[in-house]
C-alpha cells in the first residue's frame, strides 16, 4: 500500500476576471515503513505516481512512492519538498478544473507558465519539518494563476521570529515595527515577510536582496487590515503597478 496525499478545505478566490487563488490543507494517510512494505527483498517498488479524486468537497488524492528510512537529513528534507511539490501541483489541477482550462505546466523556466494559455503560475506551501521521511505530511498549499503578468503568493502559518526580521528588514521597517505592541508587531512583520516573498517570486530577486527592500510605506495599510480582518482585503501598492491581497483565514498573501 502506498501513502496518499489528500487535499481538503479547498477554497477558490477570484482576484480579477481570470486571476485566481486556490488554497488547501494537504495531509497524508499513515503509511507502512519501507521495510514493512518490502522486507529484505531486493526488488524495488514501481516509481511512478497516479491520482484519483471524488467530487465531494473537491477532495483529491495522489499516491506516490516513499523512499527508505535510512536517509540523511538533507535527503529527508529533499523528499519532503518533493511531497509538498506534489501537493501544490495537485491543487493546480483542481484550479484548472474549476476554470475549465485544459492545460499543463511549463516548468522549464521562471516564472512558471501554462503551455497553451500562457497564464502565469506561482506556488507556495508551508508545514512542519518532519524528522523522518515516513512521518505523515501536513500543511497548507496555495496556487495562483493570472493571464496578465507574473504574480507572487506566500502562505505562512507561523510568525516570523523577531531576530530574523531585524536581520533582513530595512531600518525604516524596524523603526516602525518596534513602536508597535508585540502582538501587532508580529502580525505586521509576518505580513511584510509574505509581501517580500511574493515580490521575490515575481522579480526573481535573491533572497537577501528581496527581504531587504523597504516596504515601510505599506505598514499603515497593513495595520488597518489587521485591525479589521476580513476574508479578503486588497491593498494598492502605490510604488509599483501591483496590488496586494490578504486572505486572512488562509494566512495567504498574493501580489497580483
Written account of the structure:
The protein has 256 residues and is of the alpha+beta class. The chain folds into 2 domains: 147 residues, no CATH class; 94 residues, no CATH class. It has 7 helices and 12 strands. The strands form 2 sheets. Strands 3-4-1-2-8-7-6-5 form an 8-stranded antiparallel beta sheet, covered by helices on one side. Strand 11 and strand 12 form a beta hairpin. Helix 5 crosses helix 7. 30% of the residues are buried. About 11% of the residues have low confidence.
Shape: globular
Uncertain runs: 32-60
For the CA atoms, what is the radius of gyration? Answer: 20 Å
Largest sheet: 8 strands, antiparallel
What structural class do helix, strand and pairing data support? alpha+beta
Share of helix among residues?
A: 25-40%
DSSP, total strands:
12
Integer average pLDDT: 84
Draw up the topology in text.
Elements: E1 4-16, E2 19-28, H1 34-38, E3 50-53, E4 60-63, H2 73-98, E5 105-106, E6 112-114, E7 120-127, E8 138-146, E9 152-155, H3 162-168, H4 171-178, H5 182-203, H6 207-212, H7 219-227, E10 233-236, E11 243-247, E12 252-255
Antiparallel strand pairs: 1-2, 1-4, 2-8, 3-4, 5-6, 6-7, 7-8, 9-12, 10-11, 11-12
Explain briefly what this protein structure is.
The protein has helices at residues 34-38, 73-98, 162-168, 171-178, 182-203, 207-212, 219-227, and strands at residues 4-16, 19-28, 50-53, 60-63, 105-106, 112-114, 120-127, 138-146, 152-155, 233-236, 243-247, 252-255. The chain is an alpha+beta fold. The protein is globular, with a radius of gyration of 20 Å.
Amino acid at each position: 500500500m502506498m501513502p496518499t496525499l489528500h487535499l481538503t478545505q479547498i477554497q477558490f478566490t477570484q482576484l480579477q476576471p481570470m486571476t485566481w487563488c486556490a488554497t488547501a490543507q494537504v495531509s497524508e494517510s499513515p503509511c507502512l515503513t519501507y521495510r514493512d512494505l518490502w522486507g529484505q527483498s531486493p526488488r524495488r517498488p514501481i516509481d511512478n505516481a497516479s491520482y484519483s479524486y471524488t467530487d465531494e468537497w473537491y477532495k483529491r488524492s495522489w499516491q506516490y512512492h516513499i523512499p527508505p528510512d535510512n536517509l540523511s537529513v538533507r535527503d529527508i528534507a529533499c523528499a519532503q519538498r518533493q511531497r509538498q511539490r506534489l501537493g501544490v501541483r495537485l491543487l493546480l489541477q483542481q484550479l484548472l478544473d474549476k476554470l475549465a482550462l485544459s492545460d499543463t505546466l511549463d516548468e522549464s523556466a521562471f516564472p512558471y507558465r501554462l503551455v497553451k494559455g500562457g497564464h502565469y503560475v506561482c506556488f507556495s506551501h508551508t508545514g512542519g519539518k518532519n524528522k523522518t521521511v515516513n512521518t505523515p505530511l501536513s500543511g497548507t498549499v496555495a496556487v495562483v494563476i493570472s493571464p496578465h503578468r507574473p504574480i507572487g503568493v506566500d502562505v505562512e502559518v507561523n510568525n516570523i521570529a523577531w531576530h530574523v526580521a531585524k536581520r533582513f528588514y530595512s531600518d525604516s521597517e524596524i523603526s516602525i515595527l518596534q513602536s508597535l505592541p508585540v502582538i501587532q508587531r508580529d502580525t505586521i512583520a509576518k505580513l511584510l515577510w509574505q509581501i517580500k516573498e511574493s515580490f521575490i517570486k515575481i522579480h526573481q530577486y535573491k533572497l537577501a536582496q528581496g527581504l531587504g527592500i523597504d516596504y515601510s510605506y505599506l505598514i499603515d495599510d497593513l495595520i488597518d487590515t489587521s485591525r479589521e480582518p476580513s476574508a479578503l482585503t486588497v491593498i494598492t501598492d502605490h510604488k509599483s503597478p501591483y496590488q496586494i491581497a490578504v486572505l486572512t483565514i488562509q494566512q495567504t498573501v498574493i501580489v497580483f
